[in-house]
Amino acid sequence: MSTLNSLSVEDLGSAAQRDRRKRILDATYELAREGGFDAVQMRAVADKAEVALGTLYRYFPSKIHLLVSALAREFERSQKSIATMDAVPGDTAAERVIFVMKRTTRGLQGDPRLTEALTRAFMFADASVATEIHTVGMLLTSMLTQAMRPGAEEPTAEDVAIARVIGDVWLSALVAWVTGRSTAAETGAHLETAVGLLLRD
Amino acid sequence: MSTLNSLSVEDLGSAAQRDRRKRILDATYELAREGGFDAVQMRAVADKAEVALGTLYRYFPSKIHLLVSALAREFERSQKSIATMDAVPGDTAAERVIFVMKRTTRGLQGDPRLTEALTRAFMFADASVATEIHTVGMLLTSMLTQAMRPGAEEPTAEDVAIARVIGDVWLSALVAWVTGRSTAAETGAHLETAVGLLLRD
DNA sequence: GCACAAACTGGAACGTGTTCCTATTATGGG
DNA sequence: CCCATAATAGGAACACGTTCCAGTTTGTGC
Fold first, then answer.
1. Is the dihedral angle over the CA atoms B144, B147, B151, B155 positive or is it negative?
2. Across the interface, do A172 and B167 touch by the CB < 8 Å criterion?
3. Taking the C1' atom of D19, which residue's CA lies nearest?
4. Could you count the other beta carbons within 10 Å of the beta carbon of residue B190?
5. What is the pTM of this model?
6. pLDDT tens digit string along B138-197?
7. How many CB atoms lie under 10 A from the CB of residue A160?
8. In angstroms, rounded to a whole number, what is the distance separating the alpha carbons of residues B52 and B68?
9. What is the CATH number of domain A63-198?
10. N or C, which terminus of chain A has less Cβ within 10 Å?
């Protein structure tokens, strides 16, 4: 795996290049949604994005970078959609956190193959993808701390610690789900249990 | 990926077959320890175990099955070594759980490449490896519940739930560590935080 | 001890991620 | 506008997981 990073939007000077990048991520997204991790084949992505294979590798140095970048883009969209809600429903922190998790999870479980592709990529990513991974981790943590303490400017250290633990459980549960080792219902129940243990008000 | 399971020791009739299986797992272990996931190449394993490639695939239907089986064998050894201790040290459940986790983690972190190989395999495993994965999950859960309530015959439902959450955090932390996204110290600290949150006596 | 089935060997072959190379096309400075 | 440089296209080539096959060895029931 390469040491290079994926090219971000800011790295790209011309409009044509930004468009190529978008076409590549769109193609990745669509192939992942249709056939999961295995269907995201680099030659297929290049074809669909109307880009040469070498160009694809110039933009994203590996299949993993490509998928994790696609995951980061989806997460940003999901976070924006939650951020535009006036308030997360629920009387307790636990209820609000579960709401956010369920909403995010349901979005993902509605697209099982996409989720499989992105989760696998996330789990398989090595240090060279740390930048992209960190983006996703921060987004998730901030979604959760905001649900825990709506309106607060700065989450407490304990809030962040709890959010990270919940994020870990969520990832593990997602992995178990996408790999067919547990059902969607089990995934949800396990998450609720974990949140209940961590946020007993 | 195949639907078949790995051949377990009980499936193998003759001593020669049990010996082949052992040679294969030993070769896997050694290659993983030397060079991690990438170094565990099926041709290399077959060569080192002095077995034909087709035979290797008869015993373990994929590289993932092979590595997860190797992980299961290591876990059994680790659990036995802890089980032979008179008592896990520590006054509180949290202290005892942290002791067990640290001991297991240290064993793994002493062999970073091995751990990388096994963790990656675990994360990448799909439903066809469910049997092998389940074995590992049960071992981990029982190690933890025993540390929480030493001497108890049956762990409570809450004990099991907590143990599973800790297991999830541990896996996520391990993944972050083997992929170079966090240091060993951070991994340990994160685990301690999570255990502290879950087991406040 | 024989005949048959199962297991094993050795290696070819295929698919997909990745690398590399050459020719062609954009891009930006003078 | 022209040149130098970078970016892209198109595709061959390589590595490794996996499958498959023909021939040989091992194990089993009689």
1. negative
2. yes
3. B54
4. 21
5. 0.82
6. 888 988 998 898 888 899 999 999 999 999 999 888 888 887 788 889 988 999 999 999
7. 17
8. 21
9. 1.10.357.10
10. C
